[in-house]
Design goal:
The chain is of the alpha/beta class. It is about 40% helix and about 20% strand.
């Protein structure tokens, strides 16, 4: 059987399958519909279970494709008895949707709902035992989907980059930068709606501050994927309007599902994670702090991901049943 580290690992130098080619040997390439667009994903069947298996939908960071961090988590979930579904969200990778490389949080949450629809219809999946796992920005999406979708039985996040104004200040540096990016996003959206033309900037860059995900550290990780033709380094400027108007704190405040948050001092905006965790109204929640584990170790470090998945599966099993 293919091991998790054979699926995709930039750290260990193993290439992920190129978009548009076959899925890993442990997975089945699947498609489903979301708001009229075709979503392409990989389904990793549970390695064992008595009867229909519990299942988890895994969603990745901002501007992600399924070959990246989600492809590290899914086979590990499957090996521990959970059917796992990962997918390219609308506008990226193999999935449909225009314009391309558009980061739209609300669309991703709709795609999560469609993924749950798909899993619920599989005879090998127990539709009463469904969970969500969010990595980085994906953590902010699973909080909202978990709060609003009654089918979700439990939620987990890893290195969650959560969405409130304080998080934006820590991420982008100042009120001025936030206002400037929001204004340019709205202008680009208006241009697209009036003309159909899309303004683009790189998604990452070594030195530019106007890109989708600024910062040398982010560029160092993502540029390796772009250089190998496995990820498109492009960002629709209109995304700024959608991203900077999205917040996840209110979702956390109404989330009553069991919640596990895995984070660290060296992961994205730890204070935002503490703020979100504090407002979750249920006592059935746990904040697992990883100390000095670095953010991108949650993307590609086998030991860190093993630990995160083991903890998530343990959490899900306690609340969804074995």
């Amino acid at each position: 059987m293919t091991t998790p580290t054979e699926i995709a690992s930039t750290q260990q130098g193993v290439a992920a399958p190129k978009p548009g080619t076959t899925a890993p040997t442990t997975a089945e390439r699947v498609t489903f519909e979301s708001q009229g667009e075709t979503i392409v994903g990989w389904l990793f069947p549970a390695a064992f279970d008595d009867g229909p298996a519990p299942a988890a939908v895994i969603i990745g960071p901002e501007n992600y494709q399924k070959e990246q961090a989600p492809a590290q988590y899914a086979p590990r979930f499957a090996q521990l008895g959970y059917t796992a579904l990962i997918f390219d969200p609308r506008y990226r990778g193999e999935s449909g949707g225009q314009p391309r490389c558009y980061e739209n949080p609300l669309a991703k949450i709709e795609d999560l709902s469609a993924a749950l629809d798909y899993l619920s219809g599989l005879p090998e999946v127990d539709s009463e035992r469904l969970a969500l796992m969010g990595i980085c920005f994906g953590g902010s999406y699973v909080l909202r989907a978990g709060a609003d979708d009654p089918r979700v039985g439990a939620v987990a996040t890893a290195a969650a980059h959560l969405r409130d104004h304080g998080a934006d200040l820590a991420w982008l540096g100042s009120e001025e930068v936030i206002a400037r990016r929001l204004a340019r996003g709205r202008a680009a959206l208006e241009k697209y709606e009036q003309t159909g033309e899309v303004d683009y900037v790189p998604c990452v860059d070594f030195s530019r501050g106007d890109v989708g995900m600024p910062g040398e550290m982010v560029w160092t990780w993502y540029q390796l994927w772009a250089d190998r033709g496995l990820w498109e380094n492009r960002y629709a400027v209109m995304s700024d309007a959608a991203v900077l108007q999205y917040e996840s704190l209110s979702a956390a405040a109404r989330l009553t599902k069991p919640l596990l948050m895995i984070h660290s001092d060296q992961s994205a905006v730890p204070d935002a994670v503490r703020r979100h965790f504090a407002v979750v109204p249920t006592n059935d929640k746990h904040l697992l702090w990883e100390g000095e584990t670095r953010h991108f170790q949650f993307y590609d470090d086998a030991t860190v991901i093993d630990r995160a998945v083991w903890n998530a599966v343990d959490w899900f099993a306690r609340h969804l049943g074995h």
